[in-house]
C-alpha cells in the first residue's frame, strides 16, 4: 500500500482522492490543517507508488472501498476518525459505508467530509466517450484542465470511468446518518451545484457549505476557505454518539 500521514493534530482524517488525481490533491489542505488534524492519505491503485491494477475489476467502487478498508484497518483501527472524499473519493466513501462495517471488521467513521462530489455519477459528464483511444485523449485534456500536480495512470482512469459512469448511489443515502459536511463550489462545472444539494438533502445529518465562485478544484484553489469550513464543523463531526464508549471525545485546539 502507498499511504502517508500529514499533520500532528488530534483529529484523524482518512481522505480519498479523485478519479484522476493522487493523494497529492489533499496536501494543501492537510498542511493548512496540520495543527488540528492528522491526515491519512492513501493512493488508490494506479496512482503514485501504488501497484497498477491488473484488470478493470480492480477499478470498481467495491474494489476501491476494499483498498480504503485496508487503509483504515492499518492506520485508524480502533480510533475515531473522519472519512473524507474529494470528487470520485466521495463515491468511494459512500461505497465504503454501504459495504457494512460489520463485514469489514472496523468501526464506522464519526463524521464525513464530502468535497466536490456527487451521489449520481450517471448524471455527470467527466468524459464523453467510452472508446479507448478517444477516452484516453479526454483523460489527458481533463488532467491538464484540473491542474493536477500528480495524475493517475491513464489506463487506470479509463478502466475506472467505464466501471463507474452508470453509478447512482442516491437510493441508499438515507442509510448514512452520521454527521456529514458537504462542501461545494458554486461554479463547479464537473459536478454542478445540483449534485451538492442532492447529496446534502439525501444524507439525514448533513450540512452544506457552498463556496461562492469555487470550481471543482477546491482543495488547491480554495484551500483556506475549505479549511475554515471544516474547522467550523469539527466539533459536530467528532462527537457522534456512535463512537465506541471506551474512546473519550477529542479535545480540539
Uncertain regions: pLDDT < 50 for 5+ in a row?
A: 242-253
Number of strands: 7
What is the name of the CATH topology?
Rossmann fold
**Mean pLDDT across residues:** 91
- CATH architectural designation: 3-Layer(aba) Sandwich
Q: How far do the termini sit from each other?
A: 32 Å
Shape: globular
The percentage helix is: 25-40%
- Helix-strand string: EEHEHEHHEHHEHEHH
Largest sheet: 7 strands, mixed
Q: How much of the polypeptide forms β-strand, as a percent range?
A: 15-25%
Strand order of the largest sheet: 1-3-2-4-5-6-7
Overview of the molecule:
The protein has 253 residues and is an alpha/beta fold. It has a single domain, classed as Alpha/Beta hydrolase fold, catalytic domain (Rossmann fold, 3-Layer(aba) Sandwich). The protein is 36% helix and 15% strand. The protein has a seven-stranded mixed beta sheet with strand order 1-3-2-4-5-6-7, with helices on both faces. Strand 6 (180-185), helix 7 (193-202) and strand 7 form a beta-alpha-beta unit.
